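Sample 1 of the test manifest.
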Amino acid sequence: MKAVRRLDGWTVSAAALLLTAYAANRLTAQAVDRTKPPQLPPAPALKLPVVQTATLGNGLTLAVVEMHKVPVVDVEVMLDAGAARDPADAPGLATFTAAMLQQGAGTRGALEVADEAAFLGAELNTTASFDGAVASVHVPKRRL
Amino acid sequence: VQVPRVYHAWHTVKAFAEDDATLDVVANVLAGGRSSRLYRRLVYDLQIATDVVAFQDGGRIDGKFELWATARPGHDLTELERVIDEEVNKLAEEGPTAREVERAQNGFEAQFLSRLERVGGFGGKADQLNLYNYFVGTPDYFQKDLDRYRRVTRTGVQQAVRTYLAPHRVVLSVVPQGKPELAVKEGAP
C-alpha cells in the first residue's frame, strides 16, 4: 500500500441517541380520545452536541462527541487513504487494502480478528471511499 | 439458480419459551459470524461453501430452527451436509466452550444496546416495545429478555442441541436446473 502521508482526522464519538421523551410523557393511564389526532406541542429546540477537538502528540486530530444515553461507543479512525490516491496502474488498491485489514492484522489471522471482535460484541468495519479509508468499531462501553 | 444450496429446518419452540434464547446461542455458535464453527469449516478451511446461516425462528404459536449453506461452484450438497452433520453432532456430544457461550452473550448484549440507540424504525425502541407487547403481553420486558441470554449455560446449549437438532428434520436441496446429482443424497452422510 502506498504510504499514508497525512492523517486527516480521528473522530471518537460516544454514540447514543437523542431521546424524545415526549411520547412516553404523553402516555398516561387516562382514557385517550382516539377519534382525533393528538395535538402536537411545538417542536423542541434543536440542540446539537458539542464537538470537542484536540491534537494528539502524533499529529492526529481527535474529535469527541459525548452522548451518554446508551452505554455504547463508536470509534472511527479516518485516514487519507482513499481511492483518490490509487496509483494509475493499481485501481482498487484502497478498497482492497481496507477489506484485507479484516483478513489478518499483525499476528492475528482472519478468524482471530473476527473472534476477538465478536467476543467484545463489537462491530468492526474497515472500508475505503474515494476520499478516505475508515476503520471503525461500535462497541459496548464496558468492552472498549 | 446458479449454485446449490441446502436448507435444514428443525421443529423447536415458540418465541420466549424456555429454550428460545438458548437456541439463539446455538445458532450463534454454529453460524454466527466468521468465528463460528460452520463458517470456519465450510467457508474458511474447506472452502466448499460461500456462506452459512443459522437462526432460531420463534413465532407466537410455535418455532423452528433453520440452517442453510450455499455450495461453492464445483461442490455438491452432500459434501456440505456431511460437515454440517459432523458439527451438529460434535456440539451435541461435547457442548460449546465457555468462550463460545460468552462470545454469543456479549454479542446479544451489544445488540440489545444497539436497539436502544434509535427511537423508531425496524429494530428501534418502538419496534422493541411492540415486540414485547405482542409476544409476552407487556412492553416492559427489556431487562427480563436480556436476562434470558445471561442465564444460558454450556450444558443448556448442549442439551438444546440434543433435544431439538435431532435427525428428525426437513432437508431441502435447491440445485441448478438439470443437476439433480448436486442435491443431498438420500441416506447421506
